[in-house]
Design goal:
The chain is an alpha/beta fold. Helix content is 18%, strand content 31%. The longest helix has 13 residues. It is globular.
């Protein structure tokens, strides 16, 4: 059984299978609906049901309040139609966006390496190439777990055959401890993608400032590599925050890139109080950026990827430095544990 869902204001009509979410059906048919966490946590994919009825699914009460349900709102990432429907989504025109239909892929793990004590690099050679924009993510199917987990693609989109995932261990998590313990070279894995709209706004022709925290380096790494490989002449700054030198990874690669490309600047920042043999910057990435840019970020585009507290601090610093929401793009991390967290609410800024 399937249902037809019409999406306004684009007029697209999609087929949604029984039990399939509206978001999944739309993305697999090449129709974009704004989304971020895909787990009912952030509210980015909130739409209005104009006609028909839906099952709301496991939407967080902080992302979709009861009063919003009464107003006919639902989350496309959790809602499944119960009959033919019409919905209205807030879809902005993005001249640099590519709408690539989501597909399923199979691949073989060809390399596993420890990047830090808590982050593993997993390299998967796909049976067929995946098309994506640098900055997007995939859903990784973990054996024994019903729901896949989202991980950003770390490699440049110029390499579509072998993908890299940086997977941070979440001590109280379910899937990441299993992955860290059990993933082996030669294992067959299923992924789905690409997802998300975290990408470089190339048509703006503006300098780029990247902020990354922990494994939030994944998307910026992909985006920066692609920009440099494709001959971008815009100034690019990367501020990467970590607790200590053990947690600072790919620093050698970025230092070499900074030597090779005049338009690329790499600024690692460590936050631990007791640091030995470290002559670099300490504290937090937003403070380091504020000092280097002398509290004036105007005329740039900023891309932020990391834990929500880091994102919030960077947004505050950027706005104080004359950069506003139209030039700030974020990719926040949310886990399944956030489903019961009162700190997760619909974001002020779009999490792409």
């Amino acid at each position: 059984m399937s249902y037809q869902v019409e999406i306004e204001p684009t007029g697209d009509v999609i087929e949604v299978q029984d039990g399939q979410t509206i978001l999944d059906a739309a993305l697999r048919q090449g129709v974009y609906i704004p989304h971020a966490c895909s787990h009912g946590l952030c509210g980015t994919c909130k739409v209005e049901v104009l006609e028909g009825e839906v099952d709301y699914g496991a939407a967080s009460p902080f992302a979709l309040m009861d009063i919003e349900k009464d107003e006919g709102k639902c989350l496309a990432c959790t809602a499944t139609p119960m009959e033919d429907c019409a919905i209205e989504a807030d879809i902005d025109e993005e001249p640099d966006a590519r709408t690539i239909p989501v597909q399923d892929f199979m691949g073989t793990v060809v390399e596993v390496k420890d990047l830090t004590p808590r982050i593993k690099g997993i390299f998967i050679e796909l049976d067929e190439e995946i098309d994506f924009q640098a900055g997007q993510y995939i859903q990784y199917y973990v054996p024994g777990f019903e729901e896949p987990r989202a991980f950003s693609l770390c490699n440049s989109s110029n390499n579509k055959k072998i993908i890299e995932l940086n997977i941070a261990l979440v001590p109280d998590g379910e899937a990441t401890p299993w992955i860290h313990k059990n993933v082996k070279v030669g294992a067959r894995r299923k992924i789905a993608g690409p997802y998300g709209r975290f990408f470089v706004r190339e048509s703006a022709n503006k300098p780029m400032i990247f902020f990354a925290g922990g494994s939030g380096l994944s998307s910026p790494k992909s985006m920066i590599l692609e920009q440099l490989e494709n001959g971008s002449t815009q100034q690019i700054h990367l501020f990467h925050g970590a607790r200590n030198q053990e947690e600072l990874y790919y620093s050698d690669m970025f230092e070499k890139l900074a030597e090779e490309y005049e338009n690329f600047t790499y600024v690692p920042v460590l936050s631990d109080n007791d640091l030995e043999n470290w002559n670099g910057r300490t504290g937090f990435v937003n403070d380091a950026a504020n000092e280097i840019f002398e509290n004036d970020f105007s005329g740039s585009k900023a891309y932020l990827c990391g834990p929500p507290p880091m994102i919030d601090a960077c947004i505050t610093t950027l706005m104080r430095g004359r950069l506003f929401d139209r030039d700030i793009y974020t990719e926040k991390f949310f886990s399944k544990a956030d489903l019961n967290s009162t700190s997760v609410q619909s974001p002020l800024f779009k999490s792409i």
